[in-house]
Design goal:
The structure is a single chain. This protein is an alpha/beta fold. The protein contains 20 helices and 26 strands. The structure holds 2-deoxy-2-amino glucitol-6-phosphate (AGP). Residues 306-309, 353-355, 358, 361, 404-406, 494, 610-611 line the site of 2-deoxy-2-amino glucitol-6-phosphate.
Length: 614
Amino acid sequence: MCGIIGYTGERDAAPLLLAGLQRLEYRGYDSAGIAVLDDGEIAVVKGAGKLSALRDGLEGAYPPGRCGIGHTRWATHGKPTTDNAHPHLDCSGAIVVIHNGIVENYLELRAELKAHGHDLRSETDTEVIPHLIEARMDAGDDLLTALRQTLVRIRGAHAIVAMSKREAGRIVAARAGNAGGVVIGYGDGEMFVSSDLPALLTETQRVAFLSDGEIASITASSVQYVSSAGDRIADKQPQVVPFDPVSAAKGAHKHFMLKEIMEQPECIMDTFRGRAIFDPPGVALESIGLADDVLRRVSRVVLIGMGTSMHAAMLGRTYFERIAGIPAEVDNSSEFRYRRALIGPDTLVVSVAQSGETVDTLEAMADAQRRRAPQLTICNTPGAQSTRIADGVVLTRCGPEVAVASTKTLTASISALYLLACHVGRVRGVLDAARLAERIGALARAPGLVGEVLGLDARVREIANALATHENFLFLARGAQYPMALEGALKLKEVSYIHAEGYPAGEMKHGPIALIDRTMPVVAIALDDGTREKMLSNIEQVRAREGIVVGIVTAGDAELAAKCDFALELPPYEPLLYPLLSAVPMQLLSYHIATKRGCDVDQPRNLAKTVTVE
Ligand code: AGP
């Protein structure tokens, strides 16, 4: 979950490392540090807390040098102190390492290293790595070989970047397992390395991604790739990625979260642009990767994801069943692994992952791959590991999502799943041309309608101001809206630290109703989508217990609006796609409540954007 950056070239490394770390801070922000090599010496500067602490500590006096590495940490082993911050050094200060992952056998390695006289100073698992490299280099290995041999000793999944004053100007980087990505950036007379593509985009769009078991060795003018066995990988070439670095900036908005909520009409449109064909009606998914025959043969679909991506996957289940006519189930990626789901070549596995690097989802995908299930993935990050495991990919085209709380990638993923279900339904002969035309016509209306819903922002802010001091919320919905109730609760928890629960409204009477009194706001999604009457009854039940009702209702439904303490009216829409609209006021509600409470909206405590530990 940590962020990694490295640079070697002709420019001063420190300012570039700090700028890269700034773009990576959403991955972890317990502490940060950089190491810069100059004139045969390595200078290390670290700070506990946010990157600003490190910047303040430097007071503008950046350590000189043209080769360096930097890290933002999300603590796993050891408290978020300066001592535990990366980079970590060996005994002599000649080798410096940053790391993402967990060294599972670090206790035994620490004991072994100490017994051999190594001086370990932090509480981290990472610190064993520079000492293991030191031992290998002392025995005569070069840095690349020493890192490769170190990987043999450490258990777990890792992204590791190291440099040594014994090989000035060189940085080595390795990826082992699914602890997070490693991207090599190609500049003009300079090279970069990072855990995340967006951190490199202002410098270069020419990149190569390390696969599991690959190691890179870079200097300002060269790059060499080897396998974990030490064989040269000669055919690895950089690719040019299309991200626009300007879109990673906050623009006029106070927070990335608000900017990203506001971008949703465009992201939905970009996700179906060129894929939803109107005349004659069709769906063209450019990287589907699975032949029509395979899609005809599968007898069911299993969707997986975590957090917000799992909520999108829940809607995907509805789409596969209702649009494509295939039995579908959904599981949390982590639980999918534990339940040992019965899947095989007749099961289509569809994963949803914004980052494409969430370890639980990658492991579930690897499991599905072992059992020869055909796989598709919905992802927002071109080149991410999930896109390389799956047979095919439907990329959401949102650009980088910087706020830790996912917003625009939720609605883009839902749109992508809808398109995918239309494609599969068409291939399987379930969806005729006329019905397909209606389906994609409905999706084409989404950007305009979401834009309209964003116009509720001022009203949502008023409601947020009225409710910001409450400490518990319930979110209720039925049918296709139920995943949005879960998502509404997740968003509120994440950014405002308010306890919130999402429930299928039918479940309310089976327990949660006991919580309702005059202090409990209940957000009820009660739209004209076939669930209205039953939601109306649930709202009455909440009112009877003096709960505070925030109703998300269809415009013109005066009867329902009158039953709510606060009503948010959405334009009428196609029931299956209505979640694209209902998600928006709940995102805004969380955002405004969090800002009212003074929370750090873009970087909520304890969270990280990409979760690469299990
Ligand atoms: C959503 O707001 C969260 N940040 C989190 O639940 C996220 O959706 C989850 O970690 C999955 O990430 P992924 O889509 O990159 O796999």
